[in-house]
Structures are given as C-alpha cells and as structure tokens.
Amino acid sequence: MTVDEPLLLKRGDWTLRLRLAAEQPAHLLLLLHGWTGDENSMWVFARRFPATFTVLAPRAPYAAPEGGFSWRQIRPNTWGFPTLEELRPAAEMLVPLMDELAAEYGWDAAQFDVIGFSQGAALTILLGLLYPNRVRRMGVLAGFLPVNAEALIPARLLAEKPIYMAHGLQDELVPIARARQTKAALEQAGARVAYCEVESGHKVSAECLRGMETFFA
Question: If we measure between CA atoms, which residue out of 162, 153, 164, 160 comes closest to residue 208?
Fold first, then answer.
C-alpha cells in the first residue's frame, strides 16, 4: 500500500481512509474534512506526510442536505457556525474509533496529531480542548473556534500545545476577523500558535501548505 493507495475501511457506521505507516512505532495523524466533504477530501494533505505517519481520514457521521457529510447533525435552525454542543458528539465518537483501530492494528494511540479544514478545523480545536492529553499537535486550516467554546479557554487546557493555523484574507465563508479572534483565543488557552495568513479565499495556499509541512515534520 502506498500513499496514493489507502485502504477504504468500514467500522460500524464509520467509513474512513487509512494509510498504514511503513513501520511501528509511528506518528498517528487524523485528517478531518470540512462541510459537505468525505473521507477523500483531505487525502491531498496525506501525501505531504512521510511513511513514518499512519494517516486516518474518516467520513463525518451526518449527511449534509447539499450532499456530502457534516460533523454536526442538521436540525431546524442549526445554520451558522457550529457550537461546542453540536460538535461534541462527533468528537466523543472519534476517539473511541481511533482506540478501536489502534487495538486492531497494534498502534499506540495514546497521543495523535489532528488536522482539520473549515468545519473539520473547528472539530480539531474541540478535540484539543476535550482531550488535551491525547492531542499532541493541531492543524487549523481555514477554521474557527466553535461557538460557546470560549467557556473552556480560561482553563488553559492547551498550555504549550503546538498549533498551526492557516487562513486566507479573502475567505468568503470564514471571515479573517474570525480567524484572528480564534488565534487570540487559542493563545489565551495557552497554545503556541504558528500562523500563516495570505491573500487567498476559503482554501489553503501553497505557501501555508509548505509551512504546515515544516511544522509537522
């Protein structure tokens, strides 16, 4: 199996892409797609990580009305930026999934890295806040702090946590002001944030991708 030929797995209600590291012990990396994405959406990032990484890219558990999948269940009046309460169920399902796979494949999943895009980046932040002893490093790409997560910030749960953020000045879905507020909140929570801000829209620029590779190397 190569970087370009990941396994497609079914585990209960979950569908995910998996690339096994060439040898153990390995770095464990979780990739979380954005709104209406799926298990294939983040695989372009997997190719940027060497064979020392085991990479997991799960499909979010809820169908999105526009097609694709969502990390929060869609109910009436749930439009707008997702809240801590809406994203928490997905976060609390993901960690047992990783533990199940770790037991099956013989990994050490005590700590893992996680990179998310947009809604997946919001979930990345929440995972770090809920499981600070397990999340080692975080990548927040075109992301934002979940609504109501501010209540967790004063506890400094992310003390010395390395976080890489990337955002476009012309992002039409997540305004740059919200990204800057998110950066400030993460730093208030104790995180060490490396920040890449460039002239782009709701995507990750080549410059920020190179910065991400260096950060996670």
Answer: 164
Query: Reduced to 3 states, what is the DSSP secondary structure of residue 90?
Result: helix
Provide the pLDDT for residue 8.
95
Q: For 48-77, write each residue's pLDDT tens digit.
A: 999 999 999 999 999 998 899 999 998 776
Rounded to an integer, the average pLDDT of 195-216 is 96
User: Angle 201-75-114 (CA atoms, 0-180°, nearest 5)?
Assistant: 50
Residue 29: what residue type?
L
HEC string of 138-190? EEEECCCCCECHHHHHHHCCCCCCEEEEEEECCCCCCCHHHHHHHHHHHHHCC
Question: Cα separation of 107 and 95, whole Å?
Answer: 14
Domains and CATH numbers, the chain: 7-216 (3.40.50.1820)
DSSP state of 47: T
CB atoms under 10 Å from CB of 136, counted, come to: 17
For the entire predicted model, the pTM comes to 0.95
